[in-house]
Design goal:
- It is a single chain.
- Helix 11 links the parallel strand 7 and strand 8.
- The strands form 2 sheets. A 4-stranded parallel β-sheet has the order 2-1-3-4, with helices on both faces. The chain has a 4-stranded parallel β-sheet with strand order 6-5-7-8, with helices on both faces.
- The longest helix is centred in the middle third of the chain and has 21 residues.
- The chain is α/β, with parallel strands linked by helices and 354 residues long.
- It folds into 2 domains: 172 residues, 3-Layer(aba) Sandwich (Rossmann fold), CATH 3.40.50.1400; 133 residues, 3-Layer(aba) Sandwich (Rossmann fold).
- 45% of the residues lie in helices and 12% in strands.
- The protein is globular, with a radius of gyration of 20 Å.
- The N terminus is likely disordered.
- Helix 5 crosses helix 6, helix 7 packs antiparallel against helix 12 and helix 10 packs parallel to helix 11.
Length: 354
């Protein structure tokens, strides 16, 4: 048996791990309670966020995108003759990861390779998914003490994989081509904000700057900045800044009247993108008389799908690992000390409403 065959034989399934999102107004409040469980956020705060969903019929795009992603990924893996079944489990909404483990166990799955729909290193985008897996496995063991609990090995963070960079490059280029003079356009690279105490314990901010630098170099962007959105909690607690709305006011004062918002911190056009950028930021740009275009996320771009297949091939077949830029390739197994929780999001607006 070849070494590649031995590696491939170590796994008998793929599982896509994601945040989850509501698919109708009846789902919204239960979903938000799941997201904020244990953080003592008042019910009236959740109802305020629920109003965002009313603009979109209570449906977050993230679940449907994951369904499409799995369908397209299935076709790509078949082409590469990787015929393992693909499962899907969420952190905060159906299909919950525990239910996915049960489904996998019923099918005889022993060990799966897990792809997380988040590119960067931080507690909420990396470490917490490892905790989600452990929690679901513990719940499975409690419910079925005599059954083997499927194991899941998480695929490495992929912020500097060529496929992720290329997908974002193509998305951004689609917008830049709509401006007559690219040199007059400012690009705001956007990601979810974190408490500074949490960001200081991981590489999240530096990884974002690396991706933005690579994209700016590829597309010869003269004016750009990494900015943040969706912060929560009292103003006395420091979060990563500048906020996208504050930044838009700053560039208007500097004379920029054309801007492209590139949400490189996300891989899905979910509710935070749809509301915080397509509604709040767009409304402010209209008020400031700034022409604004928002680039799509990597989402279902072919380069992104190819990237997922490449990451799977690394682990299943021992294929070469690839990267862009100066940052090293993230390890397959996260060290026990990486991306600690730090200070969790305080009471106030939920820090995430996918």
């Amino acid at each position: 048996m070849s070494e590649a065959s031995e590696v491939k034989g170590a796994y008998d399934a793929i599982v896509v791990l994601s945040f989850g999102g509501p698919e109708g107004m009846d789902d919204v409040m239960p979903f938000l309670r799941n997201v904020t469980r244990g953080r003592n956020i008042p019910e009236e705060r959740l109802k305020e966020v629920a109003k965002h969903y009313e603009l979109f019929g209570g449906v977050s795009p993230i679940n449907d995108q994951n369904r499409q992603l799995i369908k397209i990924l299935r076709e790509e893996l078949n082409f590469r003759e990787i015929n393992l079944p693909i499962y899907w489990g969420n952190r905060n909404w159906n299909p919950f990861l525990l239910d996915t483990l049960i489904e996998m166990s019923d099918a005889g799955v022993k060990k799966a390779l897990g792809f997380v729909t988040s590119a960067y290193s931080s507690y909420s985008s990396c470490r917490q998914y490892l905790e989600d897996i452990e929690k679901a496995q513990a719940e499975f063991k409690e419910k079925y003490p005599d059954r083997y609990v499927p194991q899941i090995d998480k695929i490495r963070p992929f912020f500097n994989h060529p496929g992720f960079i290329s997908a974002n490059e193509e998305r951004l280029k689609e917008c830049l081509l709509q401006f007559p003079n690219r040199n007059l356009v400012h690009v705001a690279f956007v990601a979810h904000s974190l408490p500074v105490t949490m960001a200081d314990e991981c590489k999240y901010e530096s990884e974002l700057n690396e991706v933005a630098s690579l994209l700016a170099e590829r597309l010869q962007i003269k004016s750009w900045k990494v900015v943040f959105q969706s912060r929560s909690g009292p103003p006395t607690q420091k979060w990563l800044e500048p906020d996208i709305l504050d930044h838009l006011r700053e560039i208007e004062a500097e004379g920029y009247l054309e801007v492209v918002i590139s949400p490189i911190g996300f891989v899905s056009d979910h509710m935070e993108v749809k509301y915080d950028l397509d509604v709040e930021a767009a409304d402010l740009c209209k008020e400031l008389e700034i022409k604004m275009l928002r680039a799509k996320t990597a989402g279902l771009h072919p380069h992104f799908i190819f990237m997922i297949s490449d990451l799977i091939g690394e682990r299943l077949l021992g294929e070469p690992k690839e990267k862009e830029g100066d940052f090293p390739i993230s390890p397959d197994e996260c060290p026990a000390t990486c991306c600690p929780r730090g200070v969790s999001a305080p009471s106030g607006r939920p820090a995430a409403h996918k």
